[in-house]
# Entry
Amino acid sequence: MKKGINHIIFLRWARIIVSLVPCLAPYVCFSQCTSPISKFPYAENFEASNGNWTTGGTFSDWAWGTPSKAVINAAGSGLKCWITGGLQRGGYNGDENAWLKSPCFDFTNLKNPSVKFKVFWETEAKFDGANLQYSLDKGTTWQLLGGKNETNVCYSEKWYNDGPLLSTGNQDAWSGNMQSSRPPCFVSGGSAGWVTAKHILPNLVGAPSVLFRFVFASNSGCNDFDGFAIDDFIIEEAPASVASFTYNCSSNLRVNFKNTSTFCPTSFLWDFGDPSSGVDNTSTLENPTHAYTLGGIYNVKLTVSGSANGSSTFTLPKLEIIENMVASAVNPIRCYGDTTGILTVNFTGDTSAITYHWDSNPAQTTRTAVHLGAGDYNVTILNKEGCPASAHISLGEPPPLLYNLKNVKPDCATTNGSIDIAMSGGVPPYSYSWSPNVSNTSSAKNLPSGTYMVTVKDGNLCYKAINIDLPDSSDLEASISIVKEVSCFGGADGIATVTVSGGISPYNYTWLNAGGNTIGNNNLAAGNNTVIVTDARSCKALASVIVHQPTALTSAIKVQNTFCGSDNGNASIEVIGGTSPYQYTWSPGNYTNAFVNNLAPGQYTVMIKDNHGCIRNDTVVIASSTPIDLQLSHTDVSCADELTGSANAIVIGGTPPYNFQWINNTQIFNGNPLNHIGAGTYNLKLEDSVGCTVTASVIIAQPEALKIAIATRSSYCDLNNGGASATVTGGTFPYRLLWTPYRNTTSTLDNVRAGNYRLTVVDQNNCSTSILATILNVKPNPVFLGNDTTLCPGDKIILSPGTYTSYRWQDNSVSANYVVTSPGIYTVEVVDDLACTVTGTIKIIGDCGLIFFPTAFTPNDDGQNDFFGALGYLSTVKDYSLSVFNRFGQLVFKGNDPFKKWDGKVQNNRVLPGTYVWIATYSNKGKTNILQKGTVTAIY
# Structure
């Protein structure tokens, strides 16, 4: 590990020095508290100034301003803040132990002081970091404010994330970074941005002199992180305590209370409003439970106080406890098995906000439960506070109405029978109603054979219906045997016969359904068939039998019509019902199978006969599909080479759905219509759902491509006399033209200056193209009167500018040539054959002896004043020598030709800017050993 033992000892030694010398400049520490700040809230955003905060300590690099580092590249708000390690990119100092100190504050009038600010840290984790300290003795001693990750201090937030750190004297601090891996440096734990730190200041209440300082400490290595920054420092009153609580009931008398007060109270006093509970009426727990002695309405009060933000009281004016809850029957059950029971619940308390739950099936949620059968029921209620109460009740019912019968059968065709009913259950007394009306008591006498109905009602008007069959005393019996079932559905050819025993013959037979009076019946239909047998004593016997029939003979027909103009239709029949096997007869064609094919269009009949000879006739129609009629429409391409064409097929006939396949050269397209296609021939193959095909083709045309041919005419003399003309071909006439930037709409552009002009052409189909026309500027040839020269007395020079249409010299003469006999500046203005005006100038000096040297030159290769050497009339100079020396006396240039000058370089390297000494010797116009010297300055 990079942190050596010696390194740790050095850090601790440095920390001890800071502790022993808390203020290296006492007059600075004490001077800050001569006029303390006493107006709050105090908010410093460090925008207008540094806030009168000061710095100091060991190797301090605190800086105020706008940070522009790799990670910390902006202030917490606005533009400026305080940061270690300077404002620009780079790390902080090693072995740093430096502070940033606030102005002095007077907390005399602050009841619950608190501090909050924004911090951003990006340091080596575990070793480098910062914390906040305070002093109450004008900076003589300092105390650490708070600890790492405080959770028990009200209002504390984002307070230190690491510690203890060796560099801070084993104190907690903000430390860490967001790097992924930087061995051997420790990474992780950075703030990853500006965060707001908060802390209350209970130890500083009423303090008249309070100083704060941020102390930043670092190790000797891994210091190339951005550092630690603070911004938006605020001192204000902490939020006051606000008492509040919630509650719920665990039973109808037991209530659980939960404190929800803010901000972070530390003491609690509960008054449950229940004096009868004695000492249990109060509690100092944060979340107490109280058992009320009786139901009723109670006022509950909670008083809270905090260590640094005062006290507060909250009173719940109406806590209702339910009591005396009883469930009772409003309507008992009157008859056995009924669901007419009604139960309700009564209690002492406010019923306006009660919820109810009966455990009936289904559950009921009203005060009164209805439609109840006999059984045990529980009801639970909750008042608006959520306090429960419950009650139980059993709902009974009378026993069921039961009866026993004692019957005496009458003789045949007599009325000597009787019925006696013995009732039990229900609620006596009982009443009786007979049908037919033969009695109104529990017994009836002198009865013939037959069926009787008796309705019995008890004292609760519950009734019992009794059906009594009173047969005669005859032993006559009859039964029916089926000889043959019905052959076809809906027929009446069933056969049955009657078998009789007992009684006295002869017997008479009466068939109730099919008619007839014989022992056998050959005309029975399907269903229940009944016969009445009467003997010689008029005693009767009843017999019934069910005759069956097969299911109805039905059929399902499937047809395939002909297609593509062929006799390829087919039909099939599926038979349901009747009795298999089946026979088939088709007409025309005399086919005998259920499936027939290769049918021509037309109508066919088929007769179906089952194994019983039951017949069903069906009709089948074979239709022919209509031929396919294919019509094509299209849209040509609007602009050359675009995909704006389309083709559409209109299909009449055939058998949908259709399959469309378009072919253009090697491209294949599917579907219809065909959109966004280019020019060309498109062949369509259409196939319907039964395989019939048809083909067609369509040609998608396109106009020729728009083309512009431009002819330009150059301007001259920088005048508006240039032009251009355009020829447009292709596309679809007419065309719209627009020259920009002149907004001209014709094919020609006249009287314009040199430059670039764009012509845009749009045809009738809104196809467009453009071209850039460049009009050149023809400049006249410059007038050259010769190089500046020297004129000796008695000499003359003839100036001749060349051939032009007119001339005007500086003295307004107009000749083609000009004779110079004296020094001066001579100028001529000429007009060429394009009417362009051009001027030329020459300087003629009268020095015929000495040459001269400039005092400065700029050897930067820009083509202006790049060389140093002799100037003047050099053609007569002889024995020329020029030497140039630097400030150290070293020769940097030597030349013997007055026309070859120094370019400011030594061995192809430019000399440094500065002053250089030169010496020149030469002969000129009879004078020998002429010596000149001086200095020249090289300027870049």
Summary: Residues 501 and 772 are 127 Å apart (CA to CA). The radius of gyration is 62 Å.
